[in-house]
Amino acid sequence: MQTFHSGFGAIIGRTNVGKSTLLNTLAGEKVAIMTNKPQTTRTAIKAIVNRKNSQIIFIDTPGIHKPKTKLGETLNETAFKTLAEVDFILFLIEANSTKMGTGDKLILEKLKEVHKKVILVINKIDLVKKTELLSLIETYQKEFPFVAVVPISAVRNEGINDLLNEIERLLPEGPAYYDKEEYTDQTLRQLTEEIIREKALKLLQEEVPHGIYVEIEKMKKRETIDKEKIYDIGAIIYCLRNSHKGIIVGKQGNMLKKIGIYARQDLEKLLYTKVNLKIWVKVRENWQNEDNIIKKFKVE
What is the pTM of this model? Predict the structure, then answer.
C-alpha cells in the first residue's frame, strides 16, 4: 500500500511576479485576487491541492517590498514569518527578468536563514525564448542551492504538473489536514471582501488602490417571496482621503456602481445564488497604521 504524504509550502517572491495567479491555478479555483498592481495580496492565503497520494497546502504570501506604513511592515513580516513554518518554499521569479533585483536578493538572504528546501519557479515562460532561461537559471543557482528549478506559465497552466511532482517528492509522510472537497481556508466573508477589493483595484486610478480597505458589515442569506435564495451583502470601502472618496464614488456614483456590478457577478458565481450587494465609501485617514486593523493581516 502506497503511503500518503502531506505538507505546507510557501510561495514567495517580489510583488507582481504572479504568486496569486499561481495559487489560483494550483487550487483550480479563485482563492486569491489578481490585478496588475503591486502589493495586491495582504494576507497569507492557503490553497489546498488534493492528489491521489498527497495533500499539498500552499500559502501565498504578500509581495516583498519597501514598507512605508505599519501595514507595509506587517505584510513583509507575514511573508517572512510564514517561511519558518513550512515544509518547502517556492521562490517565484519572472522569466523576463533581465537581472536579479534588490527584492530578490533580500528574499535569498532570508531563505539562507530559514534552511528549508526551496524550488526556484520561473514564471511567465510564455514571454521568452527557452534559450534566455539558461542564463537566468545560472545566475540564481550561483546564489542558492535550490533542490529543483521548474519553469512554468501560471496563466497557461504549463509546467504545473511538473511542479506538483517535484513538490510531492519533498513531502513528509502525513495525514490529510483538510477535507478533499476544500480548496482554501478563507471564509466566505474574507473571499467577499477580497473580491470587492479586486474590482476596485482594477478600476481605480494608480494613487488610490493601496489606500483602500474593505470590510463586510452584513452578510445574510434569505429567501424571497418566490422562495428564491439570495444573499444580502453590505460592504464598506475605507479610503485615506476625501479626494480618494470622490474618485471611488465617481461622477454621479458611476465608479462605485461599476465596482458593485463586477463584484456582484463574481460573488454570484462564488455563492451559487443571487446577490443583493450594497457598498458604501468612508474616509478613514490613518487606517494603515491602526493596530486593530493591522492585526487582521498578521500571522499568529
Answer: 0.66
* Domain annotation for the chain: domains and CATH numbers: 5-170 (3.40.50.300), 188-297 (3.30.300.20)
Separation CA 213–CA 201 (nearest Å): 11
Q: What is the pLDDT along the chain (300 residues), one digit of tens a residue?
A: 679 999 999 888 887 788 888 888 888 776 654 444 444 444 456 788 999 999 999 887 655 445 455 555 655 666 667 777 789 999 999 998 877 888 889 889 888 988 899 999 999 998 888 888 998 999 999 999 999 999 999 999 999 999 999 999 999 999 998 888 777 767 788 889 888 988 888 888 665 666 788 899 999 989 888 888 899 999 999 988 898 999 999 999 999 999 999 999 999 988 889 999 999 999 988 787 777 776 665 544
Q: In which residue are the cell numbers 507582481 written?
A: 16
Whole-number Å distance between alpha carbons of 244 and 114: 41
